[in-house]
Amino acid sequence: MSSGSDIDQSNPEFETWSLDPVYRTTIEINGRLYQQWALENGTSFSPVDEDERERLDRVHNVFKLVFDNRLIFPPVNNPQKILDCGFGSAAWAVEAAERYSNCEVIGVDISPHMMPEETPTNLWLQIDDLNQPFTFQTNEFDFIQSRDVMGGIKKDRWSSYVKDCVRILKPGGWLQLVEIYPMVQSDNGMIDDNHILRQVSKNYFSSIEDTKDPRAPLKLDSMMREAGLVELGSRMVQLHLNGWSNVERDRLIGEKYGEVFKDCIEGLLQIPFKDKFGMSINEVRVMAARFRQEVDNKSLKPYFGL
Hints:
Elements: H1 21-24, E1 26-29, E2 32-35, H2 36-40, H3 50-66, E3 81-85, H4 91-99, E4 104-109, E5 123-127, E6 141-147, H5 158-167, E7 169-178, E8 181-186, H6 196-208, H7 220-226, E9 238-240, H8 248-277, H9 281-295, E10 302-305
Parallel strand pairs: 3-4, 3-6, 4-5, 6-7
Antiparallel strand pairs: 1-2, 8-10, 9-10
Helix pairs in contact: 3-8, 6-8, 8-9
């Protein structure tokens, strides 16, 4: 995927293209910066400012706790080429490049705004749209990571997206998909439609499902099978939204992720809720404040499926 990409000149496999200014243009909405191209094309509704970069780094650290510091789950030994789809702040890609120093790591994302200023010499970050067919060669990568891209992949792209990933894997290569199912659940069943946690979740589904598929995280196993992968393994884990667990590890994860999510909820909702429901920023702020208050209620035992 090289069109419109920033590519390190030191890699002989790639030409260096100047990045089209359209990808760098941002628009400020209620104090947050968004990529104008992404909004106009319905690609992403998430901010691309420093606060979002910090949030993505914090989420990466939470995922490290959830996954016991593993970057790669399947048995991948001495990979030569890795692809990170939707690199965001590039936290995962940087760690993968540092951990596998003899491996070429490539990251692809639509936004250049949250790239780190310095990266390992074996990491190349490219700007491109994952909704378009891949231009990578067939049988090119030993391992592909795709994490938390539900908000960027269009609903009619998911099947071909997974098939694209499979096509560019080497024989015996591995694909790792990690997505959050964005419907707040309750470990004790206390959350119902009277709770703002459930109301916001349902409204979020409604606000994006014309163009996105918020249920895609539930379909990953079947999409991988349809794409021809074998030796599949899938697992759902609870991503707690506060420290309600009596297990110290889970309590820590819940406390950290709850704080991250409370910080991001307003920026996440303001564009889709304005477009779908005509809500003002003040209305979104009131809803977000109620959401944050309820997130802190340990008796509800709230979590996302991951």
